[in-house]
Design a protein that fits this description.
Blueprint: H1 7-27, H2 30-33, H3 39-62, H4 67-79, H5 104-118, H6 121-135, H7 138-147, E1 153-161, E2 167-176, H8 178-182, H9 190-199, E3 203-207, H10 213-220, H11 223-230, E4 235-244, H12 246-255
Antiparallel strand pairs: 1-2, 1-4, 3-4
Helix pairs in contact: 1-3, 4-5, 7-9
Protein name: DUF4393 domain-containing protein
Organism: Amycolatopsis keratiniphila subsp. keratiniphila
Pfam families: Abi_alpha
Length: about 260
């Protein structure tokens, strides 16, 4: 990076600024007072500040090393002619095994292996969290925030009931009320969001919790669940719960903008 400070300090600084902005809005009762005269201007200022912070954070995250991109850039440099166009410019890449020409995928793996040599525990954790953060959508961040206090939410899979009453072909997985609780923009995409979060290791599924029976009943009336139910002759609902994982809790603790 061109900045003299480590990437982690930069990201932490921007996250802290975002947390301070959110804290100010909470302390002043921003959602309530937006109805008062003249508050629209203040709302625009806050939104502009949020956009600037998110834009800068996105730029910082884009600077996290992408080994495949680095390999492609290096390969391009190797094949670029010099100023007189007579021969390629020599490019030096530090690799575990140096070769004159490497396929991008192999070179990318070599880049990662080189990183592993110089990374300490904290730097490796920062790199992991930054890579995870880059993969999240805004709705998925909202879901993770809703799960961050450790509370379980009901989840349900919809399958076609077999003649023996067992679950056969699944037509929907990981539908949950957590999307509505988080206020996501695309409620119909919640099953996919949860599937991705589970795949990233940030969220886990567990057994049905009888105390959430009322919420299960509400979930079964969800439009996405109802559509899946209509797609099979006889539906079987597999009830579970969804909650944040150990990795997810550690990740949220490191990235929580309100903790600054």
């Amino acid at each position: 990076m061109s900045n003299d400070r480590p990437a982690g300090e930069d990201l932490a600084a921007f996250a802290k600024r975002a947390g301070q902005l959110a804290g100010w809005a909470a302390r002043t009762g921003f959602e309530f007072t937006r109805k008062l005269p003249g508050v629209e201007i203040a709302e625009q200022i806050v939104k502009q500040g949020e956009r600037q912070l998110l834009s800068e954070l996105r730029r910082r995250l884009d600077e996290v090393d992408d080994p495949y991109h680095a390999a492609l850039t290096a390969a391009s440099a190797m094949n670029r002619p010099d100023t007189n166009g007579s021969r390629p410019v020599e490019a030096t890449i530090t690799l575990v095994h140096t070769r004159a020409q490497l396929e991008p995928l192999r070179a990318a793996m070599a880049e990662l292996l080189n990183h592993s040599i110089g990374f300490g525990r904290e730097r490796a954790r920062e790199y992991l969290y930054a890579i995870i953060l880059r993969q999240l959508t805004p709705d998925e961040a909202r879901i993770l925030s809703a799960l961050s206090d450790g509370s379980p939410f009901p989840a349900v899979d919809v399958a076609e009931r077999t003649s023996l009453g067992a679950a056969g072909r699944f037509v929907l997985r990981n539908a949950s009320t957590v999307g509505k609780a988080a206020g996501v923009s695309l409620p119909d995409q919640v099953p996919g969001y949860l599937t991705r979060l589970i795949g990233l290791g940030l969220v886990e599924l567990d057994e049905e919790v009888p105390a959430l029976e009322t919420q299960y009943e509400i979930l079964l009336t969800d439009e996405t669940v109802r559509e899946a139910e209509k797609s099979v002759k006889r539906a079987k609902f597999v009830k579970r719960t969804v909650h944040i994982s150990r990795l997810g809790a550690q990740f949220w603790q490191a990235c929580d903008p309100s903790a600054g």
